[in-house]
Design a protein that fits this description.
Strand content of chain B: under 5%
CATH superfamily of the largest domain in chain A: P-loop containing nucleotide triphosphate hydrolases
Order of helices and strands of chain A: EEEHEEHEHHHEHEHEEHHHHEE
CATH topology of the largest domain in chain A: Rossmann fold
GO cellular component, one term (chain B): plasma membrane
Distance between the termini of chain B: 8 Å
Number of helices of chain A: 11
Oligomer: heterodimer
Helix content of chain A: 25-40%
Pfam family, one (chain B): BPD_transp_1
Number of strands of chain A: 12
Shape of chain A: globular
Family (chain B): Belongs to the binding-protein-dependent transport system permease family.
Number of strands of chain B: 0
Distance between the termini of chain A: 39 Å
Structural class of chain A: alpha/beta
Largest sheet of chain B: none
Organism (chain B): Prosthecodimorpha hirschii
Keywords (chain B): Cell membrane, Membrane, Transmembrane, Transmembrane helix, Transport
CATH class of chain B: Mainly Alpha
Radius of gyration of chain B: 22 Å
Chain lengths: 324, 277
């Protein structure tokens, strides 16, 4: 397979706010505002951003669960939203999703066997019962669940185990791409590491590529090869994970990185040296999305939207006053 | 984790009444102490006795036999009218929910409000006047006012279920919207619908009795509780038991199904469930 797995081209998704009048349409706010990215096979992309930055909308756009208002989403070169409904359903086996909340994403009325087998019933309707059960058992073993889980219901499992069920469901059709939207943020911290390790392990063994979305930089650092930082629906910085974490250039990325605990440094020094943002104010149209709380903001930042530009070390940044 | 019966007295009593009624109706199909339509004028207007446990009516027909067959009649009308209303209403409501906010959704729900604005029994009476009296038409008329009740409930329940992530997950897995509705949405709202059906069942039985009382429902000589009440009204002063027994049968049945419905609602309501466990 050559060529990128997933390409987003100038994606825009707006949501109405309020109801609008009889003849005036409701005002709309852009949750995703002109986002481009490329996911190469085997190179997992992490998307980081605070709540409200458009990450989850981006995940649903990438999964073609929502239509963009502008732009295209290409999976292996095909525009997903240009496909017929049945063609799109047929392609879905190749890109699957793990949801944030394992309490809401599993139908409480179905057994684990039916939950996990469901994507397979679409992808390979010819399978007989026994063959299907074999596949379910194999994938349950791969995610570390016992055979006995087969006939049990979601409520009989802990959050971490449920997320394993969700992962098994996503992987049963052997997809090339897995979109994971905050897959560990609903879990206890002690369980987060187990699930993350499972995801990394599966990536190695099954040659998966992740589009991994999280508000937690530390989590993304583990899983992603490349990272994209989002703020208010726009990409502010992107690049290889190692470079981006070692030397953030955008003030917002820097603030995120500095907010991570550093167990080698003296806590007082760490806090004193940290780059901090001000309190968020109102977002202004046509200004840098960080202008209201960036200590480096100049007049230009408040008057003009910085565009994403390439830097030397394979990364991009949208900032007029980047950090050296 | 056993089910504590004593905590749900209404459910237990209501369930017992409903079961007893079904047993009596079932027995009425195969055996009654007398032929419920056999005239025996010499035996007319007898009080309760060893032979006629609950007496006889103005034509000498045995009240026990007529109540037993009438029970079957009430259950049949209740069951069919609620089933019709449930199926049509659920289909409409689920369909409207899948197009939430659209013109179609508005049209369906405003038509619902229009029908709901009329008192149920009045609607049924008007309907039967239009399409003619008879048991089958009574069922249809009662079903008509059941439709909007279920449509409204199904719509709100479907909207709630549709907002859950497992519906999105099913879509991501490639299921068609129809299959999502059947496999995920309907099963998750079934509990609410069953509760409402039980309550509607009580209303339907009351409505059927009302229609039959007015001569618009079950036609003589087939026995029905409402008809029995109507025929008893002339003898209220002299032979009050003629009215008391069918009246008590109607009241007990409606009470039983209401208790059952309320009890089931407590069981299905997740907040009530959480409070108990």
């Amino acid at each position: 397979m050559t060529g990128p797995l997933l390409v987003a081209e100038a994606l825009v998704r707006r949501y109405p706010v309020g109801r609008g009048g009889l003849f005036t349409p409701a005002a709309r706010v852009a949750a995703v505002d002109g986002v481009d990215f490329t996911v190469e096979p085997g190179v997992s992309l992490g998307i980081v951003g605070e709540s409200g930055s458009g990450k989850s909308t981006l995940a649903r756009l990438a999964m073609a669960l929502e239509r963009p208002d502008a732009g295209r989403i290409l999976f292996r070169g095909e525009d997903l939203n240009a496909l017929s409904a049945s063609d799109l359903r047929r392609r879905r086996r190749h890109f699957q999703m793990v949801f944030q909340d394992p309490y809401g994403s599993l139908d409480p009325r179905l057994t684990v066997e039916r939950i996990v087998a469901e994507p397979l019933t679409v992808a390979e309707p010819g399978f007989d019962r026994r063959a299907r059960r074999e596949r379910v058992l194999a994938i349950l073993e791969a995610v570390g669940l016992p055979t006995a889980a087969l006939h049990r219901y979601p409520h009989e499992f802990s959050g971490g185990q449920r997320q394993r069920v969700a992962i098994a469901r996503a992987l049963i059709t052997e997809p090339a791409l897995v979109v994971a939207d905050e897959p560990v943020s609903a879990l206890d911290v002690s369980v987060q590491a187990q699930v993350l390790n499972l995801l990394m392990d599966l990536k190695e063994r099954r040659g998966l590529t992740y589009l991994f979305i999280s508000h937690d930089l530390a989590v993304v650092e583990h899983v992603a090869d490349r990272v994209m930082v989002m703020l208010r629906g726009r990409v502010v910085e992107s690049g290889p994970a190692a470079v981006l974490f070692a030397r953030p250039v955008h003030p917002y990325t820097r603030a995120l990185v500095d907010a991570l605990p550093d167990f080698d440094a003296d806590p007082a020094d760490h806090a004193a040296g940290a780059f901090r943002l001000g309190e968020p104010g109102a977002a202004e149209a046509g200004a840098c999305p960080l202008a209201d709380r960036c200590p480096r903001a100049k007049a230009r930042c408040r008057a003009e939207m910085p565009m994403l530009r390439a830097l030397a070390d394979d990364r991009h940044v949208a900032c007029f006053e980047p950090l050296g | 984790m056993g089910f504590a019966w004593y905590r749900h007295p209404g459910l237990v009593v209501g369930g017992a009444i409903a079961l007893a009624l079904m047993a009596i109706a079932a027995l009425g199909f195969v055996w009654t102490p007398f032929d419920p339509t056999r005239l025996a004028l010499p035996d007319r207007l007898q009080g309760p006795s060893a032979l006629h446990w609950l007496g006889t009516d103005h034509l000498g027909r045995d009240t026990v036999a007529r109540l037993m067959v009438g029970a079957g009649n009430s259950l049949k009308v209740g069951l069919l009218s609620v089933a019709l209303g449930l199926v049509a209403g659920t289909a409409l409501g689920t369909w409207a929910a899948s197009r939430n906010g659209s013109l179609l959704d508005e049209a369906v729900m405003r038509t619902n409000d229009f029908v709901l604005a009329f008192p149920a029994v009045l609607t049924a009476v008007m309907m039967v006047h239009l399409i003619g009296p008879g048991a089958a038409n009574a069922i249809l008329a009662i079903a008509v006012f059941n439709v909007p009740v279920f449509a409204r409930l199904a719509r709100s329940a479907a909207l709630q279920v549709r907002s859950r992530d497992f519906v999105l997950a099913a879509r991501a897995a490639g299921l068609t919207e129809t299959r999502i509705a059947i496999a995920h949405i309907l099963p998750n709202m079934a509990g609410l619908l069953v509760v409402q059906a039980t309550i509607q069942f009580a209303i339907a039985i009351l409505a059927e009795a009302g229609l039959s009382y007015l001569g618009l429902g079950t036609q003589p000589p087939a026995p029905s509780w409402g008809r029995m009440l109507y025929e008893a009204r002339t003898y209220m002063q002299t032979q009050p038991w003629l009215a008391i027994f069918p009246g008590a049968a109607i009241a007990l049945t409606v009470l039983g199904f209401n208790l059952l419905g309320d009890g089931l609602r407590d069981l299905v309501d997740p907040r009530a469930r959480r409070a108990r466990t």
